[in-house]
Design brief:
alpha+beta, five-stranded antiparallel β-sheet, 3 helices, about 25% helix, flat
Length: about 120
């Protein structure tokens, strides 16, 4: 897709479905950038709320890869994998320390495992 077409699509509102059972999916792939998002109001039929999955990959000198799954509000199965390459130690330390969703214990464990504490 050329740049003009991509920019034109950004101005179009996303399609709307009246069917709540249809999963919501977005995939954007450009050179050095790959974003895939899937969301569903209730993927396993248990009625406990929203579920979602994100896969993000950004390339170049520095690379960021994120895989995150959310099982729903308060779900103990929520998990994420983040890999950053090409970043200096200070940037990695700042990224971990600025992650609001992580407990102090998890942050300390991550910094220790990476030798950044």
């Amino acid at each position: 897709m050329d740049t003009a077409r991509a920019q034109a699509l950004l101005n179009d509102p996303p399609p709307v479905s009246d069917d709540d059972d249809v999963p919501q999916r977005v995939a954007i792939q450009l050179p050095g950038f790959d974003l895939r998002v899937a969301a569903d109001d209730d993927t396993d039929g248990d009625g406990d709320g929203d579920h979602g999955r994100v896969n993000l990959s950004i390339g170049g000198q520095q690379q960021v890869v994120v895989h995150a799954d959310e099982g729903g509000p308060g779900d103990a199965d929520d998990r994420a994998f983040v890999r950053i390459t090409g970043a200096d130690k200070d940037s990695a330390r700042d990224f971990i320390n600025d992650a609001e969703e992580l407990s102090a214990e998890v942050k300390t464990q991550m910094l220790t495992e990476l030798g950044l504490n």
